[in-house]
């Protein structure tokens, strides 16, 4: 008999936002035969929370499990409220740990964190980064299940000769530090006048307009595409040679995994869970947060060391195989069966 899942998260891809766990994992679970109900696609945060509460009540007799996408910022409290209601109705709930700043949340909201995570039947972390933090904090019921990709949808391209054509893919938000990408381009142009940058993603907090104003004032060769469908940006990626990830805070960024699958050499800040998926000098290059000089130096190395690029992109292709849905789905089946 198939299990019924209630999945709580920010299902806002249809509203122009970047797809999140609920947008990808939900359909994957449906493909395994689970009946999945979702909350919520409401744009307003208060209305979205109310919708989640209503769906928990509505499916309290049907749901075998409640999956809760759990973040470290304001949406942490959505998960906490949901957990309270699940506990009231004796529902099995599973927080899926997404927030790169959750280790700080464990310290800053100790009572709420204890209730949310101790009463869960299982915790799921996408990498050892959060799993280790939670285990060290006394939460032993953590299983690592990677963010899954359908790897056959990602055409790997070996780049014979790199050009200074940079690609950045993320929501425009202060925590992802998009302005640094423009500063890197500005510095790179001093040595590589043909350098260019493409930035893909929707605005989240006004950062997109600030970036556009900066690029205009500095006459930088940058393209802002806004939000693209996955198939669109995957096709676009074939025209670029280096992927940069400038974030201040992160857990397991899917865009970095996708860049690895596409054969793009990667330069990223060494923050949060990034070093757990991107090994410096092995599958990419890591630099200190906010280090513009470090980014420029790393990009210069990629542009001048062909054999190094070949090694790290091949290593990345081998590493990414463990994130394929065919490798991950057995873990979800075991937890939810």
Shape: globular
**What profile does the largest beta sheet have?**
6 strands, parallel
How far the N terminus sits from the C terminus, by CA atoms, comes to 10 Å
The CATH class name of the largest domain reads Alpha Beta
**Beta-strand fraction estimate:** 15-25%
Domain Glycosyl transferase family: 161-318
Protein name: Glycosyltransferase involved in cell wall biosynthesis
Pfam families: Glycos_transf_1 (PF00534)
GO molecular function, one term: glycosyltransferase activity
Question: In terms of topology, how is this protein built?
Answer:
Blueprint: E1 4-8, H1 21-31, E2 35-39, H2 45-58, E3 65-70, H3 76-88, E4 93-97, H4 102-108, H5 110-118, E5 123-125, H6 128-136, E6 142-144, E7 165-169, H7 178-191, E8 196-200, H8 207-217, E9 222-226, H9 230-237, E10 242-245, H10 254-262, E11 266-269, H11 274-277, E12 285-287, H12 292-304, H13 306-320, H14 325-336
Helix pairs in contact: 2-3, 3-5, 7-12, 10-13
Notes on the structure:
There is one protein chain. With 337 residues, this protein is of the alpha/beta class. It folds into 2 domains: 4-145, Glycogen Phosphorylase B (Rossmann fold), CATH 3.40.50.2000; 151-322, Glycogen Phosphorylase B (Rossmann fold, 3-Layer(aba) Sandwich), CATH 3.40.50.2000. Helices cover 44% and strands 16% of the residues. The chain contains 14 helices and 12 strands. The strands form 3 sheets. Strands 9-8-7-10-11-12 form a 6-stranded parallel sheet, sandwiched between helices. Strands 2-1-3-4 form a 4-stranded parallel sheet, sandwiched between helices. A two-stranded parallel ribbon has the order 5-6. Strand 5, helix 6 (128-136) and strand 6 (142-144) form a beta-alpha-beta unit. The longest helix is centred in the last third of the chain and has 15 residues, at 306-320. The termini are close together.
């Amino acid at each position: 008999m198939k299990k019924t899942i209630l999945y709580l998260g920010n299902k806002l891809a249809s509203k122009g936002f970047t797809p999140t766990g609920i947008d990808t994992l939900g359909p994957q679970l449906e493909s395994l035969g689970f009946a999945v109900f979702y909350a919520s696609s409401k744009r307003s945060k208060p209305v979205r929370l109310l919708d989640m509460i209503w769906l928990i009540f509505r499916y309290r007799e049907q749901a075998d499990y409640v999956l809760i996408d759990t973040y470290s910022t304001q949406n942490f409290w959505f998960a906490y409220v949901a957990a309270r209601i699940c506990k009231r109705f004796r529902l099995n709930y599973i927080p899926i740990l997404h927030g790169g700043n959750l280790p700080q949340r464990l310290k800053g909201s100790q009572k709420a964190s204890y209730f949310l995570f101790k009463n869960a039947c299982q915790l799921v972390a996408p990498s050892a980064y959060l799993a280790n933090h939670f285990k060290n904090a006394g939460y032993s019921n953590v299983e690592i299940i990677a963010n899954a990709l359908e790897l056959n949808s990602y055409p790997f391209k070996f780049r014979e000769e790199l050009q200074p054509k940079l690609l950045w893919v993320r929501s425009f938000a202060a925590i992802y530090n998009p302005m640094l990408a423009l500063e890197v381009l500005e510095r790179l142009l001093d040595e590589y006048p043909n350098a260019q940058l493409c930035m893909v993603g929707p605005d989240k907090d006004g950062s997109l307009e600030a970036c556009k104003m900066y690029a205009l004032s500095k006459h930088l060769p940058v393209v802002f595409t806004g939000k693209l469908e996955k198939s669109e940006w995957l096709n676009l990626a074939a025209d670029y040679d280096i992927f940069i990830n400038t974030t201040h805070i992160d857990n397991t960024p899917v865009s970095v995994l996708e860049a690895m699958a596409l054969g793009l050499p990667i330069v990223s800040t060494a923050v949060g869970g990034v070093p757990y998926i991107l090994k410096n000098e092995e599958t990419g290059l890591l630099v200190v947060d906010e280090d513009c000089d470090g980014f420029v130096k790393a990009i210069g190395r990629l542009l001048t060391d062909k054999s190094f690029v070949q090694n790290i992109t091949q290593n990345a292709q081998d590493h990414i195989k463990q994130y394929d849905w065919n490798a991950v789905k057995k873990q979800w089946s075991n937890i939810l069966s």
